[in-house]
Specification:
mainly alpha, 2 domains, two-stranded antiparallel sheet, 2 strands
């Protein structure tokens, strides 16, 4: 089973959020995920996932290559002065990537269920992008 870089990043964040108390299995998963992510995105430049060299890109992989690369590049470049601002900037790029991938599925898939799901993803992610763009930092109370 191949995991996309985003899934691996999510796995890393999920596992790092759980204090496994030094569980060696969780640590191995965190290490493998971090290595895969580092190999995929280096200094804001997206490279091919490690598994792509082993198996070659499939037509399905190639259909999403441009949108995936743009999303990773955008996320790597997005920043903010605070964690909150960086989160919003990076998530906007992440959601833009989801919209671009949904556009590929809508343009190329003939499966009605895939097209339905892609339409739902595009609508939801577009709404969430607007919500994130409208976000402003909460006023901090005076010390």
């Amino acid at each position: 089973m191949r995991l996309a870089p985003i899934a691996l990043t999510t796995l890393t964040l999920t596992l790092s959020a759980c204090d496994g108390g030094g569980d060696p299995v969780q640590q191995a998963l965190r290490d493998a995920s971090a290595e895969n992510h580092a190999a995929t995105v280096q200094e804001g430049v997206v490279s091919a996932p490690a598994h792509a060299a082993d198996h070659g890109a499939t037509p399905g992989d190639e259909a999403f290559a441009a949108s995936e690369a743009a999303m990773h590049t955008g996320m790597a470049r997005a920043s903010g002065a605070t964690v909150d601002e960086a989160y919003i900037a990076k998530m906007i790029e992440h959601h833009r990537g989801a919209v671009a991938m949904a556009d590929v599925a809508l343009a190329q898939s003939r499966d009605p269920e895939i097209r339905r799901m892609a339409g739902l993803v595009k609508d939801a992610q577009t709404r969430e992008i607007a919500e994130m763009r409208a976000w402003r930092p909460a006023a901090r109370p005076a010390p």
